[in-house]
Amino acid sequence: MATADRGAAPKKPVRVITITSGKGGVGKSNLTLALALALSSLGRRVLVWDADLGLANIDLLLGLKPTANIHDLLDGTKTLSEIIAQGPGGLKILPAASGIMELGALSESQKQRLLSEFDDWDEALDFLLIDTSAGLGTNVIYFNLAAQESIVVVSGEPTSITDAYALIKVLSTCYQQNNFYILPNMVANEKEAKNVFGLLSSVADRHLSVSLRLLGFVPQDPAVVTAVRTQTPFFLAAPTSEASRRVLEIAQRILANPPDLMAEGGLSFFLNRLAGLGVTVE
Ligand SMILES: Nc1ncnc2c1ncn2[C@@H]1O[C@H](COP(=O)(O)OP(=O)(O)O)[C@@H](O)[C@H]1O
Ligand SMILES: [Mg+2]
Prior knowledge:
9-stranded mixed beta sheet
């Protein structure tokens, strides 16, 4: 694993990225995990926060059975290091919470606990990737507003495209979040990915003030389906599959494109926004 940029290199803020979608089942969890493993294979230290309350959670994809989650941290019974599970390739996983954790309903002491538990992690991470639920739930909005970068995963299905548009529309018109990466998944090829992106961006250009950027694409690939069945991430089980190669390209693109406003980044910036967001979510 490359380590050239560690050690005495100047400290860069942790990049906090949400992986989100309008519609469920478009591949968020699989892509979050693959992207995390790709970044990790490029020498970056990654924590994956499984914030999806859906079925195919990160720990299921990895065959892990975590015994604690963020609830145990918030109620003061466990520390952050005690709830973080070790994944393959040096990955760290913050497991999904059973039951709904409403970020908007955290007490003052829970917010303080969240902030102080993450305090030391600024030095130990390069990326925090957050696998959110689909749609427009309160937590999805909170995570997307607090994170500096958002990746919207979209499949070629018309409903996935219209739901992605609805998510982008609400985040931009109600909450002034205007920058999004678009990641078509389960498409046939690059041409279809560009079509999907074209459809989304032409409607967005006409009705919204947003900047959408095509991050790459991941094809429909049987290696992903097999990996889900065998509970081994496709990036590790099938490193030469097209899906894995595309994800590696996406990781390299992310590394080559740090966000403009690094001053607004970092873990404590993210957590302060997450805990302190005074947004009213309809
Ligand atoms: N690139 C792909 N190629 C083939 N199948 C895929 C791909 N991405 C996702 N899938 C399929 O879609 C299912 C849902 O993926 P998942 O990552 O759980 O979606 P989400 O987290 O958005 O609900 C997976 O179980 C897998 O069968
Ligand atoms: Mg999921």
